[in-house]
Amino acid sequence: MKRRDFIKTGCLACAAMAAGSSLASLQSCSPMPVYKATVDQHQIIVPKTAFLEGETMKVVRSSATLYDILLVAKPNEEPRALLMSCTHFSNALVPNTNGLNCNLHGSQFDLQGAVINGPASKALKKFTVSTNEQNYLINLKNN
Ligand code: FES
Description:
4-stranded antiparallel β-sheet, globular, 2 domains, 1 helix, alpha+beta, Rieske Iron-sulfur Protein, 8-stranded mixed β-sheet, 143 residues, 18% helix, binds FE2/S2 (inorganic) cluster, single chain
């Protein structure tokens, strides 16, 4: 193989690998879709139809809270809602399929809101969630 061909082939292989790894890292950190909810008398209303087939979590944004809320609605579990604010220094949390991470100092929380890794030492704020036929109702009072 001539030197020129070797360099050309090598560069193409490197470019393909770089593109592949960039795409993989983008997919792994792709944000969870946000549902913009309405608020009615101390309740955030999230229609059950906002969840796509097989989806068990939804980031909920509303005018009622400063931070987004992670609504977890898994089959055979009580639905729950977690305020996505780190209990260490109130940084916005990033959800993933296993929990929530804080990018500021590295705290991690599970999907029950408990601390997995500090420096945060306090569990996430939770809201009770009730349901009716069509909706999840995140209760902002009595929490
Ligand atoms: S603000 Fe989240 S770990 Fe410090």
